[in-house]
């Protein structure tokens, strides 16, 4: 929108009026279904809404930049040019070799705001983080939530501080040399405040989470543009360095050029213009390397994707859990197999799905940095009945053994906030919908979901209870506790090792060796060896490289010449 100019796409409406305060202004339709109005004196900070046909209910702008009164209230004009950026020297960061830290603004601090988060950015710098990946900040109904029920995709959630506060957060990260990735959700809209379908044919079908977008049907060109323009705005107007695309397997697009490929091409063009790297990281359940294969080679050209198979293999090896989708990863050698090729299900049978799943990657063509590796994420913690972290199940030493595998692998490591000190807080599912009927449905649905797996009603936290949010908030004071501090220092040391020894961050999968011997996992990283004993018994390994003092050890490790003795839940990096 330019100053004093308003426009909105409503191709099948007979009349659209612009409401500015008590005044109504008629709008004029063009041949593409866009309605326009020019209203003098309506600059930055003006509240407005749209009236469709004879409906007296004013609706917020589908492309709203600011929703200070919530997702049901009027939109407010916001001029991106007004913010004075301080990151003119920022040239971005490559993903290869980097470490990502996933955080949720609402529970990262007790205040749950961008301004409060600034106080802990130096902690992330000290840890050695290269990127923060921020869970969705788009506007959703209520005050507290994960952010995946957003409905105003271009407006920053007001309780977090609104659009200008988010810019200050990005600016502050860049000032410290930390890039910002933003989680965005294009596969569905939330259940409250999703007014898009009143303006036009935005929806076609449903996902398991809500209405899906019309990406390939009649009038879909403008819907696709809606997604792409939103993505480009985050990258251009908010200076974020990349986007994490939620559940792209739920984007139904039968067109010749998939939305993801089109989006990647547009982002690459913007990256060239801005002269800094921009990243697109998919969450995908497809196990299809096409997503991260270059467009020149017939792929979609995304930068990277989350790799849940790596998580599942690590989780089973560390915890012994084998329920549900973990069952296949209990097979002998599953962890080593998955570490070698990223996907465990690669054109192979998946018992959880009851069918063959996935396609293999080519280690000589696909770089490991294109696959994110993690022990914990918001999903893998928050979608457990109690939202319990790994540290609630396994010992700190065993957690650190898992971290050694992640940080010394050829993949892009990611950790979830608080993991670096084995935070005692759970991260549970929570929401704060204002509609009592919807709130009740969410509460009952959550309990019914876990009742089917044997959980009692009292064992599943109430997602609408504010105490659930409080429990899920990071307890920063634990960093002063010696036990938690020891975990933090080891995480910090592992990240420092990746920086000091390039072979530990080498993403070439065809140069990466994985072996198992007497329950000991051995990672070959150039001239370095990483030994991790996840078994129940002490083991001894004979190194195949000249003996050197270990770079880092945790647990009971003893070296004699080329022989290394490791107690259970111990690791050594040579």
TrEMBL record:
<comment type="pathway">
    <text>Glycan biosynthesis; trehalose biosynthesis.</text>
</comment>
<dbReference type="Pfam" id="PF00128">
    <property type="entry name" value="Alpha-amylase"/>
</dbReference>
<feature type="binding site">
    <location>
        <begin position="244"/>
        <end position="249"/>
    </location>
    <ligand>
        <name>substrate</name>
    </ligand>
</feature>
<keyword id="KW-0326">Glycosidase</keyword>
<dbReference type="GO" id="GO:0005992">
    <property type="term" value="P:trehalose biosynthetic process"/>
</dbReference>
<dbReference type="InterPro" id="IPR017853">
    <property type="entry name" value="GH"/>
</dbReference>
<feature type="domain" description="Glycosyl hydrolase family 13 catalytic">
    <location>
        <begin position="102"/>
        <end position="498"/>
    </location>
</feature>
<keyword id="KW-0378">Hydrolase</keyword>
<feature type="active site" description="Nucleophile">
    <location>
        <position position="246"/>
    </location>
</feature>
<protein>
    <recommendedName>
        <fullName>Malto-oligosyltrehalose trehalohydrolase</fullName>
        <ecNumber>3.2.1.141</ecNumber>
    </recommendedName>
</protein>
<dbReference type="InterPro" id="IPR013783">
    <property type="entry name" value="Ig-like_fold"/>
</dbReference>
<dbReference type="GO" id="GO:0005737">
    <property type="term" value="C:cytoplasm"/>
</dbReference>
<feature type="site" description="Transition state stabilizer">
    <location>
        <position position="379"/>
    </location>
</feature>
<dbReference type="InterPro" id="IPR014756">
    <property type="entry name" value="Ig_E-set"/>
</dbReference>
<dbReference type="InterPro" id="IPR006047">
    <property type="entry name" value="GH13_cat_dom"/>
</dbReference>
<comment type="similarity">
    <text>Belongs to the glycosyl hydrolase 13 family.</text>
</comment>
<feature type="active site" description="Proton donor">
    <location>
        <position position="283"/>
    </location>
</feature>
<dbReference type="InterPro" id="IPR012768">
    <property type="entry name" value="Trehalose_TreZ"/>
</dbReference>
<dbReference type="GO" id="GO:0033942">
    <property type="term" value="F:4-alpha-D-(1-&gt;4)-alpha-D-glucanotrehalose trehalohydrolase activity"/>
</dbReference>
<keyword id="KW-0963">Cytoplasm</keyword>
<keyword id="KW-0119">Carbohydrate metabolism</keyword>
<feature type="binding site">
    <location>
        <begin position="308"/>
        <end position="312"/>
    </location>
    <ligand>
        <name>substrate</name>
    </ligand>
</feature>
<dbReference type="InterPro" id="IPR044901">
    <property type="entry name" value="Trehalose_TreZ_E-set_sf"/>
</dbReference>
<feature type="binding site">
    <location>
        <begin position="378"/>
        <end position="383"/>
    </location>
    <ligand>
        <name>substrate</name>
    </ligand>
</feature>
